[in-house]
C-alpha cells in the first residue's frame, strides 16, 4: 500500500514538471509582452520594466530561475499588481475557493449518495424516477446557466437570498454552493444508483439477508462499501471540474476566490499570475486524483494489484 | 460480430423502441435543419440592430423579443445553433480521428508501443485541460478554429482508451489472424478489418462527446474567451442574457432553454444508442 503510494507520488512529479514547463514556454510564446496594453510607456521605462522582471535574460536562464522559485513556492511577482507576489495572491484567494469547493462537495456527496441509494433501493418507483429526472436536469443544465437562474428566482424575484458576495450577508454562501454542487450531486446520484444496483444483485447480499440481518445493516454495512466505489473514484476527477466550475461561480457571484483571480489574470494578460495559478491548480488536481485512487484501493481489495 | 447487418438491424430496432432516444433524435434533426437553413428561416440578420427598439419583450414582430441593441433574439439563437452545433461536430471529429488512430495502433501492436502510448494517455489524463484551453485562448487570441482544435485535442483520451480495449479483444480472433496470414498491410488491416468492427462503441461515444464539447465551448464563451461578437454561440447569448437578466429575463431564459433542450436531446439519444448497440455495457 505504502509502496504503491510512493510510486504514484514519484510518477506525479514528472507530470507536474511537464505542466510547469509547458505553461512557461506557452506563455513566452505569446505574441506581445505583458506591458503592451498599458498606456504608452517610453522605451526607457519599458527597458527598465523588462530589466526589473528579468525578461531580458536568456530564456533558459529565466526558465531555471522560475523553476527553482516554484520548488520553494515562489511564483514570482505579479505583472499587473506591482509589489504583490503571485504566491501571496494565490493564498488570499485559496481559502475562499476551498471553502466554496468544500460546501459544494458536501452538498453533492450528501444529496447525491442519499438520493442515489434511495433510488436503487426503491427501483422503478417514484422515489427512483423523480430523483433520476432531477439528476438528468442537473447534468444537462450547465453551471453558468444554473447560477443565474437561481439568482433570478431566489435573489431577484423572491428576494430571499443575496445575489452576490461571500461572507458579507447571511446566507450569501448558499446559492454559490448549491450552484456548484448541483451538477456533482446529479452525477453522484447516478453513479451510486448504478453501483448499488450492481452490488445488491450479488450473492453476498443475499447471504446477508438470508442470515436475518436487518435491511438497514445490509445496506449500510454490506452494500454501500462496494456500491459507492464508483463515487469515490469519481471524486478525484470531480475536483478538476469543481475548479473549472469555481471560475464561473466566482464570476457570477463576485466571490474573491482563486477562480476569479485566474479569469481576471487571463483577461489582463497577467502572465506570471496565469503561470502561477496554472501550476498551482494542476498540482491540486494531480493530488486529488492520487487521493481518490488511493481511497479506491483502500476500499476495493481487487484494485490493489 | 461477423454478421454485421444483423447487429445493426437489431440495434436499429432497439433504438426505434426507445421513446426517449427517438424524441431526442427528432429534436436533434430539427435543430440541425434549423442550423443549416438559418439564413432562410431567421426573420432578421444576426447582426441587424434596431437601436430605437432596444430590448423588447417577445411580440409578433420578434417572437422571442430583442436584446439590448435591438437584435432579434430568435435569429440570434438560430445563428448561434450553427456555431454551437458546428463546434460540437467538428471538435468531436477531431477527437475521433486522434483517439481512434491512437487506440487502434496501441491496441493492435501491443507490447512496448502499447505501454508507451497508453502511458502518455495516462499522463495527459492528469493534466488540467480546461486551464490549458483557457491559456491557449488567451495567448493565441480567440480564434474559432483554434477553439475547435483545442477542444478536440482534449476529448480524444477516453476515445483512445475505449478503442484500444476493443481492438485488443478483436486482434486474436480468426478473421484478423487470417488477414495477417494473407499478408494484409497494417493500414488495410485497420481500415477494412478493425475499424468496421468497432464502429458501434465509436458511434456511441461520439454521440456522448458532442454534448460535453458543446458545454466546454459555451463555458469558454461564457467567460468571454470563446466566440466573439457579433457572432454568437449559445454560450455568448447566455452570457449576454446574464448581464441583463434583472430587467430582461427573456434574454437569459430562451437561449438557456434552447441549450438545455439540445443537451437533453443529445444525452437521451446517446444513451439510447448505447443501449441499442451495446446492451451489455449500459450501466447506470
List keywords for this structure.
heterodimer; A: 305 residues; mainly alpha; 12 helices; B: 284 residues; elongated
Shape of chain B: elongated
Give the biggest beta sheet of chain B: none
> What's the alpha carbon Rg of chain B, rounded to whole Å?
22 Å
Tally of DSSP β-strands of chain B: 0
The number of helical elements of chain B comes to 12
Helix content of chain A: over 70%
- Specify the helix fraction band of chain B: over 70%
Structural classification of chain B: mainly alpha
Give the overall shape of chain A.
flat
Q: Characterize the largest beta sheet of chain A: strand count, sense, and whether it forms a barrel.
A: none
Give the ordered list of helices and strands of chain B: HHHHHHHHHHHH
Report the count of strand segments of chain A. 0
**Rg calc of chain A:** 24 Å
Strand content of chain B: under 5%
Strand % of chain A is: under 5%
User: What is the largest interface, and how many residues per chain?
Assistant: A-B, 50 and 39 residues
Task: Kindly summarize this structure in a few lines.
The complex is a heterodimer of chains A (305) and B (284). With 305 residues, chain A is an all-alpha fold.
Amino acid at each position: 500500500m505504502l509502496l504503491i503510494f510512493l510510486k504514484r507520488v514519484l510518477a506525479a512529479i514528472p507530470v507536474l514538471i511537464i505542466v510547469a514547463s509547458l505553461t512557461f514556454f506557452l506563455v513566452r510564446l505569446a505574441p506581445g509582452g505583458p506591458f503592451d496594453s498599458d498606456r504608452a510607456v517610453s522605451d526607457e521605462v519599458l527597458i527598465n520594466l523588462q530589466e526589473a522582471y528579468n525578461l531580458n535574460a536568456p530564456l533558459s536562464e529565466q526558465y531555471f530561475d522560475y523553476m527553482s522559485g516554484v520548488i520553494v513556492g515562489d511564483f514570482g511577482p505579479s505583472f499587473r499588481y506591482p509589489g504583490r507576489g503571485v504566491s501571496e495572491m494565490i493564498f488570499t484567494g485559496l481559502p475562499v475557493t476551498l471553502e466554496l469547493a468544500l460546501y459544494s462537495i458536501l452538498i453533492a456527496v450528501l444529496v447525491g449518495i442519499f438520493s442515489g441509494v434511495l433510488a436503487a433501493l426503491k427501483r422503478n418507483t417514484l422515489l427512483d424516477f423523480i430523483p433520476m429526472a432531477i439528476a438528468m436536469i442537473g447534468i444537462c443544465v450547465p453551471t453558468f446557466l444554473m447560477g443565474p437562474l437561481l439568482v433570478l428566482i431566489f435573489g431577484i424575484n423572491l428576494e430571499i437570498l443575496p445575489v452576490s458576495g461571500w461572507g458579507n450577508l447571511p446566507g450569501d454562501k448558499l446559492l454559490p454552493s448549491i450552484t456548484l454542487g448541483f451538477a456533482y450531486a446529479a452525477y453522484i446520484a447516478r453513479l451510486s444508483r448504478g453501483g448499488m444496483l450492481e452490488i445488491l444483485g450479488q450473492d453476498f447480499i443475499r447471504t446477508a439477508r438470508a442470515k436475518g440481518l436487518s435491511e438497514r445493516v445490509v445496506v449500510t454495512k454490506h452494500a454501500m462499501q462496494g456500491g459507492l466505489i464508483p463515487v469515490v473514484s469519481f471524486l478525484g476527477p470531480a475536483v478538476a471540474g469543481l475548479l473549472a466550475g469555481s471560475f464561473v461561480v466566482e464570476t457570477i457571484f463576485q466571490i474573491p476566490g482563486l477562480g476569479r483571480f485566474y479569469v481576471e489574470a487571463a483577461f489582463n494578460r497577467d502572465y506570471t499570475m496565469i503561470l502561477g495559478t496554472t501550476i498551482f491548480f494542476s498540482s491540486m488536481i494531480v493530488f486529488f486524483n492520487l487521493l481518490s485512487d488511493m481511497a479506491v484501493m483502500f476500499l476495493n481489495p481487487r484494485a490493489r494489484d | 460480430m461477423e454478421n454485421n447487418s444483423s447487429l445493426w438491424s437489431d440495434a436499429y430496432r432497439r433504438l426505434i423502441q426507445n421513446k426517449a432516444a427517438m424524441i431526442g433524435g427528432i429534436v436533434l434533426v430539427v435543430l440541425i435543419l434549423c442550423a443549416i437553413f438559418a439564413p432562410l428561416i431567421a426573420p432578421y440578420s444576426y447582426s441587424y440592430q434596431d437601436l430605437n427598439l432596444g430590448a423588447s419583450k417577445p411580440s409578433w414582430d420578434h417572437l422571442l423579443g430583442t436584446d439590448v441593441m435591438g437584435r432579434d433574439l430568435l435569429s440570434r439563437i438560430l445563428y448561434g445553433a450553427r456555431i454551437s452545433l458546428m463546434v460540437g461536430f467538428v471538435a468531436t471529429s477531431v477527437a475521433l480521428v486522434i483517439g481512434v488512430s491512437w487506440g487502434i495502433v496501441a491496441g493492435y501492436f501491443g507490447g512496448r508501443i502499447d505501454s508507451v502510448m497508453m502511458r502518455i494517455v495516462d499522463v495527459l489524463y492528469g493534466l488540467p485541460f480546461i486551464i490549458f484551453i483557457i491559456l491557449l485562448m488567451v495567448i493565441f487570441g480567440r480564434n474559432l478554429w483554434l477553439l475547435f482544435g483545442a477542444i478536440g485535442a482534449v476529448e480524444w483520451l477516453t476515445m483512445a482508451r475505449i478503442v484500444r480495449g476493443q481492438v485488443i479483444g478483436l486482434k486474436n480472433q480468426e478473421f484478423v489472424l487470417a488477414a495477417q496470414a494473407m499478408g494484409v498491410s497494417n493500414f488495410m488491416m485497420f481500415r477494412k478489418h478493425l475499424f468496421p468492427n468497432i464502429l458501434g462503441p465509436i458511434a456511441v461515444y461520439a454521440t456522448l462527446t458532442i454534448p460535453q464539447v458543446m458545454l466546454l465551448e459555451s463555458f469558454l464563451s461564457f467567460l468571454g474567451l470563446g466566440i466573439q461578437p457579433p457572432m454568437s454561440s449559445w454560450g455568448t447569448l447566455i452570457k449576454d442574457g446574464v448581464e441583463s437578466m434583472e430587467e430582461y429575463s427573456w434574454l437569459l431564459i430562451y437561449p438557456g432553454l434552447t441549450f438545455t433542450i439540445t443537451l437533453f436531446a443529445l444525452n437521451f439519444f446517446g444513451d439510447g444508442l448505447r443501449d441499442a448497440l451495446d446492451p451489455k455495457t449500459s450501466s447506470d
